[in-house]
Amino acid sequence: MIYPACAMKVLWTLVAVAAAVVLLSVRVLLRKGGRFSSQHVSQNRLMKSRGIGCAVSQDREERRKAGAKIDVKQL
User: CA 26 from chain center: how many Å?
Assistant: First the structure.
């Protein structure tokens, strides 16, 4: 048996989640060809200007610079 108070909490939760989804996607819904911006660190203009990138990408670059100096198997 579902209690009325519990059902109201679930209903309000669903309404809040639906409102959040709509508000977060306003830009995408109202613009022609709109889409969400990338959330990846390396695609952020401010991070690029500061020289900050993805940890995986930065690690790959440092390993490439070091060449054969680092032997991963010995770590």
Answer: 18
